Structures are given as C-alpha cells and as structure tokens.
Amino acid sequence: MNVEAALTHDPERRRDLAHVGPVELYTPVLEASRDFFVNQMALTEVGRDERSVYLHAWDDYQSWTLRLIEREQAGVGTTFLRAASAGAYERMRAAIEASGQRVDLDDGVRGLGEVTRFADPDGHPMAVYWDVDWYEAGDGDRPSLKNQAAAFPGRGANVRRLDHVNYLTKDVPNTSRFLSEVLGARCTERIVTDEGEDAAIWYSLGNKSYDLVYTEDWTGANGRLHHIAFATDTREDILRAADVMLEAGIHIETGPHKHAIQQTFFLYVWEPGGNRIELCNAGARLILAPDWKTISWTAAERAKGQAWGLKTIDTFHTHGTPLV
Amino acid sequence: MNVEAALTHDPERRRDLAHVGPVELYTPVLEASRDFFVNQMALTEVGRDERSVYLHAWDDYQSWTLRLIEREQAGVGTTFLRAASAGAYERMRAAIEASGQRVDLDDGVRGLGEVTRFADPDGHPMAVYWDVDWYEAGDGDRPSLKNQAAAFPGRGANVRRLDHVNYLTKDVPNTSRFLSEVLGARCTERIVTDEGEDAAIWYSLGNKSYDLVYTEDWTGANGRLHHIAFATDTREDILRAADVMLEAGIHIETGPHKHAIQQTFFLYVWEPGGNRIELCNAGARLILAPDWKTISWTAAERAKGQAWGLKTIDTFHTHGTPLV
Amino acid sequence: MNVEAALTHDPERRRDLAHVGPVELYTPVLEASRDFFVNQMALTEVGRDERSVYLHAWDDYQSWTLRLIEREQAGVGTTFLRAASAGAYERMRAAIEASGQRVDLDDGVRGLGEVTRFADPDGHPMAVYWDVDWYEAGDGDRPSLKNQAAAFPGRGANVRRLDHVNYLTKDVPNTSRFLSEVLGARCTERIVTDEGEDAAIWYSLGNKSYDLVYTEDWTGANGRLHHIAFATDTREDILRAADVMLEAGIHIETGPHKHAIQQTFFLYVWEPGGNRIELCNAGARLILAPDWKTISWTAAERAKGQAWGLKTIDTFHTHGTPLV
Amino acid sequence: MNVEAALTHDPERRRDLAHVGPVELYTPVLEASRDFFVNQMALTEVGRDERSVYLHAWDDYQSWTLRLIEREQAGVGTTFLRAASAGAYERMRAAIEASGQRVDLDDGVRGLGEVTRFADPDGHPMAVYWDVDWYEAGDGDRPSLKNQAAAFPGRGANVRRLDHVNYLTKDVPNTSRFLSEVLGARCTERIVTDEGEDAAIWYSLGNKSYDLVYTEDWTGANGRLHHIAFATDTREDILRAADVMLEAGIHIETGPHKHAIQQTFFLYVWEPGGNRIELCNAGARLILAPDWKTISWTAAERAKGQAWGLKTIDTFHTHGTPLV
C-alpha cells in the first residue's frame, strides 16, 4: 500500500468522528485496579455489575469514561468512538462495512444508544455510536460551576478526561490506511524507519493533536495495548501525581518529562492490573490548521531521546498488555 | 428573532471555518505597542511597512499573527477567519452574500491568498480565506523540535498563539444569529438578562470552547473591541506574566483569576495603545461533544463574581476601543 | 516608646526562638472545622479528647500542628514557640519574666515537654518550649522518602506545614517592642501610617521572611486573631485549592493573588468556625541577610493595592476572631 | 576520625555563618559563559575587568552573585561565606586559624569589606566576610516592589538567587569534620557506603536544607567542582528553563526530576565553559527543627534512583571541573 496516500488528508472530507469515547480495560485484579483509578487518578465509581466497574472522570460529559472488566489477562477491551452526528454515524458504519471489516449492531451498552461494533485491522475491538447519556451529577458531586460535568475531586492526580489510546499493532502501514481512508482521521505525526516504513503513527480526530496512536508490536502478537492516557489541566498536576504514585506504591515506568513527538508532558505508570497508564498535558498546543502537514521523525532524530534528553526506557518498547 | 433557534446547532452541518486567524489592531502609539507585544508578550516582529508592523507568535503555523496599524484611535481592524478547505471558502462566501452582507475580494493581504472581506452585523471588518503562507523560521528562531513553528522565545509572557477575539456589539441577538446561521459557529455559553435577552455570547469553531465572543456595548457605538486574547501553556505563565507587566509599567486591569464562564484562567492588561489584551489558559478543557448544550448564565449567577469570587471590575463594563 | 529602636536588630544577639510551633484554634463547630482541615487542607487527625482534636500537617516534624478546641466563639488559643536549644529555652523564660510578663510552667501539653506559658502585650496566650515529640508515621501514612514526616496526602490543598500567625493588636508599637526586645525576633517589613505609627509589623525568627505578624485592631478589642497561615509547595497548589474550596462551599474571602508586602502568593478562606485561614507560598524568597533592613510601606504605597493591583477587600480590615 | 561526632550538632552553638555568598567560576570561554548566565539564567552583568565579569541575580541583596573568570580550565574559584555578625566574623577567623588552616586577610574584593581567605581541607578556596555592599538598582532594573533587589527580568530561567555549591572532595569524612567542627554547619543528609563511610554530605547554615555539599571525587584529584546551583521560585520555572536550554543548544545533562535526597526539583546543564550548573526548587521545604537528625541514605536506597525512579546518569559520577 501507499503510505503517503494514506497520510494525504483531504480537508474537504467530512470529519465524521468526534472523539475517542469511553473505553474498556481488562484487569486480573479488578478491585485493586478500581482503587487505583479512584484514589490515585480521581475517577469516580458510577456503576458496577458482576465482573466490571464503571468509572467517570470529572469533566467527561458522558455517563462513564472507563470500564474495568475482570479477566485473566490485562489488555484493552472495546474503544468506543463517538460519531459527529446521527448522519455521520450512518456514514461511518457504511464506510467500515465497505472496507470489508465485519460490523455488528449492539444496543446493550450502558449509557450509549445503538453502537456499531467492528475491529481495526490488528483486531482491537472498536465501536461507533451517536446516542449517548449525559453525565448527571448527584448530591455528592454536583459542581459549583455548571459548565463542568461533576465537581472537581481534589484527590490524587485529578485527571480531567480521557485523552487518547495508544495501541500496539503488527502492521502499522495497514492500520494507518484504515484510520485515514475508512475512519477519516488525520495523521499529525509519525515515526519512519530508515527503510521508509511507518513504525508509529499519531492520528487526530479534531483539534487535539492526537486521539488514536499505533506503535509497531515487535512480538508479532495482535490486539495489544501500549497505553491509555488521561489529561490533566497543568504540568504541575503531573508532578504532583508523581508524588501520589510514589506514596501509593504504584510503579512509575518513566517521566515526568516532555515528549519530543507531540511535545506532550507525560508520566507513565503501571496500574495494578499491569496496563500502562499515561498522565498527559499538552499545554495550549492544538492542531488548528485544517491542512496540517504530517511531521515525520527519523530514527536519527529519535536517537536524541525525549525533548529534554531523557532516554526511552527499555520496557517502553517491550511492555504491552496482554503480556506475550 | 428567535435566539433559541440561533443557538440550536445542527451537528450535521459542515464546519466550514477552521479557526480565528491573524488579526489587526489599531494603535495611536505604534512603536510602544510593538515593544509591548515583542518584549512583554514575546511575539516577534516579522515585517513592517510604512504605518504598520507584523508580529508572529511562536507557535502560529501562519506567517503572521497580529498586525499593528498606526491610527489616531485604538481599536480592532480586520479579523481574518480561515476556512476549513477550499470548498468551505467558496461556501462561506456564498453564505455571507446570501445573508445580505456585502463581500469584497482582496488578493493583496500579506501572507494570505485571496480573501473575502465582509463585516459582521455590528460593522467589525472581517475576512475569510483559505490559501495561507506557512511560517518559515530563520536562523534566529529555528525551533529545536520541528513540530512547532518557531523557537520558544523564553521572554516575558511567552504566549503561544492567538486564542480569541471579544467584540462589543450594539445588538447581541442579531450578531448571534449571524454567527450561528451564516458562519456556522456554535454557541457554547452565553449570558442571559432577566428579560431573556442575550447580553454576551461565546461562539466556538472547533474544539476550543470559544473563538469569537460578543458582549453588549452599552454606549450604543458600533464596531468596538472588548479585547484580544493570547493563549499561554500554563497558569503559571500567567502568574509570571503579571510580574512581567508590573515591572514594565503595563496597566493590569484585573486578574489573575479564573472566569466562571468558560473557566478560563485570565489576566487583563491594557497595551500602550489602550486596547485591552487578555492572557488566557484553559487547562485541558475542550468542547468534545458535537452536540454541546449551550450553557446560559443568569444575572443572579453573574452576581457571584468570577469563579473564586473576584468582583468584576467597573472598567470591564465600560472600557472598549475605540473610546467613545 | 521608640519604634525605630525596636526595629534595630543586633545581629550579634542570639536567636533563641527557632520557629512558630503548634497552635490552638477555637471553633464553635468542632467537627465541621475538623473536616475542613482534614478534607480541604489535608491535615490528618492524630488525636482527640473530649472537646478538642489534634491535627498534623504532612511535613511537620512535630507530633501535632494544630489543635481545634470547641468554644462558643472562634479565635486563637495558645501559640507555642520552639526555643532554639535547651539553653535558649531558659534564656527566653528569663527574658519574658524580666519584661514583667507573668510566666507559668506547664508540663501537661500533649507532645511537648515543659512549656513556659505567657501572654504577649495584647493578651494572646503564648508558650515557649524545647522538648518535643517527633512525629512517628504509622502504617497508613509512612512516607516513601524518609526525609519527610508523613506521606504526601494527595488530598485537597496538600498544605505542607504551618507558616505563620497574624494577630490583631490594639497597640502595635508596644507589641513590636516586645517581639524585638524580649523575643529577639527581627522586623522584616512594616506598614507605617502618615503619622509615623506602625500599623502592622512582620517579624521573622529565622530565614522565613516572617513568622509572627501583628495588625492594628480598629475595634479596640484584645487578643483577637487575624489569620493562621499554612504553606504550600507551589502557587499552583493554591490555584487548585481555590477550586477545592469552591466545590466544598468554603467562603473564599480574597485571592488568589500576590501580596506587595512580603510578596506572598495567597488565598484567604474562612474555615467553618469563622477563623480566617491563609494558604501561602513564598517561592524561593528567604531573608538571608543577617542585617536585613526593615522595609517600611506608606499609606500611599498601600493604596496601590496588592502586587498586581487587587484592592484589599473590606472584610480584611474588619473580620477577626472572636467577632466583636 | 569519628564521623558521628562530627554530625552531632550542638544546638547551643552559635551559628556564625549566615549564608553562601558570592562565588567565582572559572571558564575557558568567558563571553560564552557570560551570555549563558545573562540570556538563559537571567543574571545581569554589573561589572567587568580585564579577565572577569561580575553578574547579579535579581533578588540577591548583595552587589554581585557570580564572578566569571577566564582561565584555561573550568572550575570553581573562591566561595565567599557571609558571617552572621561582625563578632561572628572574628570568631570564624579564629576558629579557622585554630583548626590549622592558613588564613589571609584581603580587603580588595569588589563589593565586600575585609575578607578572611582560607581553604577547605580539599583545597577549595574560601573566604569569610562581614561587610558587604548592598545591591543598588538603577534606572534599568529598579523593581516595582521595593522588597526585592532588582526588577524581575522576565527572561530565560529567571533564577532568583544562588542556592548552594556542591564540591568534589577526596576525603569526605575529613571535610565533614571541618564543616561541622570549624564552620559550625549542620549535616542534614548524607550518603553512607556499605562500609559505613560518608560518600556525600549536605550541610546547612540556616533554614535552607543545604548550602554546602561535598561528594566523593573518585579521580583522586583535589579542589574540583561538582556544580553550582541557583534557585527558582517554582518547579514550572525549571520546566520552562528546560525548553530555554533546549532552544539555546545548552547541554542538558539530566532532569527535570526530583531528588530523593533533599527532595529538590532539579535540572542539570553544562554551561559553555563546561561547569555543571543546577537549577533547583525546594518548594516550601525548610529545616525548622534546630535539632534536626541527619538523614543517612544507604547504597541500597540509592539504587532505587531519584524520587520518581530516574536512574542517575553516568556523567553525574564522572564529570567535574576542572576535568582530570
């Protein structure tokens, strides 16, 4: 396939996906993972069933942000993507079907209307939806300012909302084509090998500089997760979060530091179930240009390390969930 | 007219405007205003002609951000709005013409291709454009990371980019209808009087929670400016900027504090020419919901002051440029 | 008396007081005040008796920081001051006695050895001590780094330690003389009226720019409190604390802003019992000069407002506890 | 010698040193080093002679903070230590002489009165002084608030003041005894080898948790410098400084991160002359206890890395100036 073609974004094309919506995460230690997200990350438990817990980040307009599901192995479940309109939802389903991916309708997802389930080329389960329940704050979390979803928790890392998901994939170019041609996302940055192959791709759905990221999986496995990221309001929140993680005995993998790619200020930790979780802050950086030109990073540029020189930690290239 | 109708956003409608682009500002003291924007705000001078200076903010992808024009009275010149595509540019021109506003083509604007000039219902000069020159850093400001437009200046307030323009208008409801129905912008928040009239409106073009704001002008004048705002990466940048302004003898009108409306962390100063300038930071707050429901603030809610209780300063209701 | 004489600090004189130690606060609503200090300020309850609760700030090396005592009226109880050595304790007792103030020994104070009780000239109860129990963290709050007293709480305002106490006094000059000549403190800044009288004084015991502050009480009452202040590590902590207070319904009196005097970044709230509480951050500002020259602020300088122009709120001049 | 004895601080002993005063730094590239300290660190040039430049940090009450001296090899020149009083100056000279170290009087140092020159046991040149010229701001840097030495520069890293000096020494225990017994400093933290030997020591003169640090020099050389540190008001200043250094092409050795020892938030860079420079922020952490118990870190504890897990970079153990 022609990667460059995939990267050429037609600004006249409709943007039919609005944002990365709620996401599911597998964990072998449901209650420990739940406690991490509630106590250290500052999400709130908003529901549970026999083998899963629903959590909400304080400024997510939707009824839930993250569902933890008990399973033998950690990993990522379904990523839900909100369509930009009712018509966009229909167009998106048609486009996915036309691409040859199988679609399944499901109207049994908590807090969402009908969803169209599918998988990306690497097998990660995904779904598109339009109808959604808005979060309704109760007596315990009614915000003082009515333009936010729930009260500011004042607890742990105080993450505001889900930011992005970073998947591992066996075939970056093929996945890139799917994101660009089928989902209509825009590639804002990428890593290119000396052989000219894409090794990692950052795709954006709106003004955030990325929402969906894929990194090459060297193990040859399918459907694995690199990390899920949550946004904080400031870099100071992330520095404080590092102390919070330290005190709670949560494994800090790397950071705080600033990525060269996308310039995100980051902290990576492993939640008790083993999934890598990022806390991130982009400052005021947004992609406002509708014809943004994809930034390509070479191996030589990557060798300089992160923005301020931090070397990428070994586990960053090897740890994914499920473990293989 | 029916304000509610204007506020009802059709998510199926195309978003044909991408962002607020470069803007012009009038000043009776050109060099003093230029020095303020260069030394305190950290823009860079990138060009000048007989009676004006072009300035660039370090992460603006376009060739210039702000043009200062010498004139007897301070105020706002043309606001340029970038279309989302070549087709969107054509559709936007047709929509403005169809609304009854006069349009004029101009291909002589520095750094832009053909622009379609028009005026909003209150008479503020505006223009839509698609073709644009990208900023090209030179030896003196080449950034170390190639995903930003120019080197981080490390000077004064270090504002990253233009954020929004806040105009005064005699007729808020009529302006609101124009923004919604003609420009296709979305009203994310508004102030409603006890009589049910809109007194101020915040309109968004993308995921930023607002780009164009109109506040009622009690003087009965037309075409006046409330303020132009520039975004910083952190709230700390704004605290530091307050010290920078203090040392430079720049009048601090109010802040730093946090707005209740839109929750922006702000500082308002008057540049030497008399125009009000805001430094603002939104944290990680974005409008991701394509069907965001306009937040309406009543007079009673407004009486509580800003988010943390600061009372709105008198001049905030009276000072606009040009002075009347 | 000769105010100037009081302000002339002899650098050869021994510094016999080390710091402001634990302090007592009266409240008519013990449990509500306790909840404020635990949930919003991030102190920890470490003990209680029939009518009082002992609280500890996470980096206080001593066994408790604040004791809340139930009483009909809010106000300040005893301020404990730690001597710089065993010998200093004896010298301090002798100096207080020699000044004509009555002293009483008490060995029944929780966590302290023998204390010497006395009152300042305005009647505020005080005590000097040397022997002290160090804080011993338990399983629930053992810090990951052994050079801090207890685990970082990651809750609310996360105040690190007590910073200073600001008292109201009927007679500033007389109090100033006592602080300087008897307690051996140094006056680092002061407000002087147009008549040349001291209206407020900031006294320091070490490198912190102030520890004990007295402001003129216009009501003619004795022994009242202006506020007690707790230090945070960053200004960002104080911005976040403002949101925490907003969500908890705690009255924010003024701030966040930066004082012109002493340049402290501040937030003032009223705890549920009515006492004014400050959250403060001094950045890296310290008084390192052993012969620091007292800074005197005139009424004209005060009229400029705080550092960035905020006008002093009326209640700041009138609200003290107990109410009169 | 008995290290424990050296560490036992007698709180009754007078503190005769007030702070680390101005310091001299050698550089083979005088103008490049000067530009680094002016443009990136935000010091101001306040004087120069044939082969040296005097620089001032904006809140240093003294007339100069750092003198850069041209020399073939980088390294540290004289560290000046201010006595706590005129009497303390005399006592300090007597104590140094009594210890067997040679002392020399010199009244020719810019901005200082008579100084008593000596060397520490490892040969680093030092001097004690009492009389000092206070900084007098001029038209270009008069501060808006009169309780700071000079105007806030709003440039680069905006360091407020000198913070500490970290020397390399062949014999840590012997140096420790000199600091404790002769200079009367207090050891607040230290690294102890598995053999029970001190490998690094942090000594404090006042409430700052350290002012003079010595680390074992594995090369066997004498009189070398590990680094000189400057304090910023916030951690955010240090994050921003990292971008400033990145853009200026200054080598970032490690950081930003948080030390486990002393908990300082840090960034280490190499100035153009090769000397390691630290930017540091301690938050509100101070040593208020007059009987603080020295914290001892073992090799096993050190192996955990810095506070949030960053591994100590190899050059941190090998790079010192002069190079050997």
TrEMBL record, chains A, B, C, D:
Protein name: VOC family protein
Native organism: Agromyces archimandritae
Lineage: Bacteria, Bacillati, Actinomycetota, Actinomycetes, Micrococcales
Pfam families per record: Glyoxalase
Sequence ranges assigned to domain VOC in this UniProt record: 19-131, 161-282
Domain of life: Bacteria
SUPFAM superfamilies recorded: Glyoxalase/Bleomycin resistance protein/Dihydroxybiphenyl dioxygenase
